[in-house]
Amino acid sequence: MKKRDIFIFIFIFVVSWLIFDNFYLFSNIFIRWSIGAIPLLICIFYPLFVTFKEKENFSTIGLTFKNWPQGVLWGLGITLAIVILNKIFIQNHPLASFNNVGFGIVYWAFLSFSQEIFFRGYFQKNLEKAYGNLLGLIITSCFFALWHISIRFSPVWVIPSSLLKVFIAGLLWGLSFQKTKNLIAPCLSHFLIGVFFSVYR
User: Fold this and answer.
1) What mean pLDDT is predicted for residues 134-138?
2) SS in 3 state form for the chain?
3) Boundaries of every domain in the chain
4) Could you write out the three-class secondary structure of 91-124?
5) Is 100 left (phi over 0), alpha (psi -120 to 50) or beta?
């Protein structure tokens, strides 16, 4: 784990906070979501840039189809586990609201990939190298939950039960990344959870 990784997390958090705090200043939905995509694009391009610069294979950050059947099974299994846990233990809040299902699918596909490549593929990988698998997994899940506080346009993310839900989901997605060594499982589960727990008008 390098100091620059903590710096880039703080940078993404601050950028997210500033953007999402002023989200509704823009009435046009496409402009709004284009600006909202900026921190997520940083989440994608930073791990890719560092991996390329350090001449590492992109499979080290989970960009591989190796073990893809295992990844799909883990993704579906964890999705089911999160749905059950959410129904039994945690108060259910919609994650997002969309005018149509198609936009929701595109949104969650982009969001899940951007967050998973940064938090699981890059951040967790480096924390596990520094502190071991268990502690790396826990710390990553804490940072993952903490980032959600920056989503200022939705008050849901400051509710302790919602942050607990994100932390638990982060643990499960991180575990699936450890077991499969690819981003298929966490991306698939993150995507499905997002789509299932959103509302469509």
Assistant:
1) 97
2) CCHHHHHHHHHHHHHHHHHHHCHHHCCCHHHHHHHHCHHHHHHHHHHHHHHHHCCCCHHHHCCCCCCHHHHHHHHHHHHHHHHHHHHHCCCCCCCCEECCHHHHHHHHHHHHHHHHHHHHHHHHHHHHHHHCHHHHHHHHHHHHHHHHHHCCCCHHHHCHHHHHHHHHHHHHHHHHHHHHCCCHHHHHHHHHHHHHCCEEC
3) 3-200
4) CCCCCCEECCHHHHHHHHHHHHHHHHHHHHHHHH
5) beta
Question: 75 φ, ψ to 5°?
Answer: -60, -45
Q: For 19, list phi and psi in degrees, rounded to 5.
A: -70, -50
Q: Say how far apart CA 182 and CA 141 lie, in whole Å.
A: 17
The one-letter code for the residue type at 166 is V
Pair 168, 115: CB distance under 8 Å: no
Site of tokens 């790396």:
136
Calculate the CA 171 to chain-centre distance. Answer: 11
In 3D, which of 27, 8, 5, 12 has the Cα closest to residue 151? 12
Q: What is the pLDDT of residue 90?
A: 61
pLDDT above 90 coverage of the chain, percent: 66
